[in-house]
Amino acid sequence: IEIEFRNRLNLLGKPVSISSKHKQNFSHRRLQSIVFNFIERPRGIQILYHVCMFLLVFGCLVLSVLATIPAHMESANQILYIVEVIILIVFGLELGIRIWSAGCRCRYQGFLGRMRFCKKPLCIIDIIVVLSSFIVLCIGSNGQMFAATAMRSLRFLQILRMVRMDRRGGSWKLLSSVVKAHSKELITAWYIGFLALIFASFLVYQAEKDENSKDFETFADALWWGLITLTTIGYGEKVPITWLGRLIASVFAILGISFFALPAGILGSGFALKVQEQHRQKHFARRRMPAAYLLQCMWRCYAADKNSRSVATWKPH
Q1: Cβ contacts of 133-138, under 8 Å, gap ≥ 24
Q2: Are residues 139 and 23 in the same domain?
Q3: Is 48 exposed, middle or buried (0-12, 13-18, 19+ CB in 10 A)?
Q4: Alpha helix segments (H runs only) across 102-238
Q5: Local structure of 15: helix, strand or coil
Q6: pLDDT band at 292 (very low <50, low <70, confident <90, very high)
């Protein structure tokens, strides 16, 4: 850094005098940039830290599930308490370092800039996770049972930790781009499927309400039956018993299920096309720089040719 400052020149070619305060600010901003890129844009071996954090969060989630099983409740709670303490310390430090390192970007400098950074959705999730972990640990350390029923819902709020693993939102951006690209097809399939659900539920309700009032007492019961049937879940708790009801159910099962299954195929093909497009863009980006370098070299050879009569050339020196 000292050599870089010593060799810095102005427009007239004279050395620029830089005070030690500017050097310290430069070192401070450079450290902030390194830390910010490590947390927000990991590359290479830096990804190992985020993989370890994911495994730690996943292990905590597994222990939270085991803590609800009576046979494993006591041992799981003891291990879970230790893991929660570790996660709270790590995530608390990471949140503080993340807010501090955000100052390397102009829009996040100063107090107002830090507040602007804290308003980001992922930063809000981080704050919620840290606060919920702190509350769980404080209540659990007061002699109360760590897996008390009142605390289980708050502890499972920490599932948001899994959401924060994707810091750059690549998965959500990919999903939103696929839905946006095929929005017309999806809306059409959902619209026709919704109409099939309404008609099937209404007709079956009219056919079954007198003979099978136990299962189809209201139209809401028929809607529940139609939704479970057309989405192929099939609990079997409500079944038409009249021949007319069975005939209507059979016809709409054949037609309606096909439209309810269409969105899955549309999204699947959309994901495949989007991934193929991303691979094509990466391949193009890898070839762009060598191609630009080749064109630049060819132009330099042409421009430096002594026999060239072009006015847009220069003499080699």
Answers
A1: 133/84, 133/87, 133/88, 133/91, 133/158, 134/88, 136/84, 137/81, 137/84, 137/85, 137/88
A2: yes
A3: exposed
A4: 110-118, 121-140, 149-156, 160-163, 170-181, 183-208, 219-230
A5: strand
A6: confident
As a whole number of angstroms, the distance between CA 257 and CA 248 comes to 14
CB 70 within 8 A of CB 132: no
- Please state whether 232 falls in left (phi above 0), alpha (psi between -120 and 50) or beta: left
Same domain flag for 125 and 195: no
User: The whole model's pTM is what?
Assistant: 0.59
β-bridge partners, 15: 9
Indicate whether 139 and 200 sit together in one domain: no
DSSP 8-state assignment for residue 165: T
CATH number for the domain spanning 275: value is 1.10.287.70
pLDDT, one tens digit per residue, over 156-174 is 666 666 666 666 667 778 8
Share the mean pLDDT of the chain.
Answer: 78
Number of domains present in the structure of the chain = 2
Q: 47-50 long-range contacts, Cβ below 8 Å, gap at least 24? A: 50/165, 50/167
Single out the residue of 198, 200, 186 nearest to residue 251, CA to CA: 200
CA-based nearest residue to 138, from 149, 161, 126, 154: 154
Q: Are residues 128 and 154 in the same domain?
A: yes
Give the pair of three-digit tokens for residue 13. Answer: 């070619």
